[in-house]
Structure to design on (58 residues):
């Protein structure tokens, strides 16, 4: 019973770390997208990258 409890705690802590990491990743990504949309110098570069990604997927 004690082993199960420690396993459960370790899984819970791992899950919380994963959620925290994903939350940071998503928030940073949204900030990056916001900046690239509103910064004109990055806007042209972003369009070229999107075209390149589309060409690679086709």
């Amino acid at each position: 019973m004690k082993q199960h409890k420690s396993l459960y705690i370790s899984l819970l802590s791992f899950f919380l770390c994963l959620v925290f990491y994903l939350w940071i990743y998503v928030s940073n990504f949204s900030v990056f997208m916001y900046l690239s949309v509103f910064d004109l110098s990055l806007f042209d570069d972003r369009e070229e990258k999107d075209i390149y990604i589309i060409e690679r997927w086709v």
User: Anything to note?
Assistant: The chain has a mean pLDDT of 70. Helices lie at 2-38, 40-57. DSSP finds two helices and no strands in the chain.
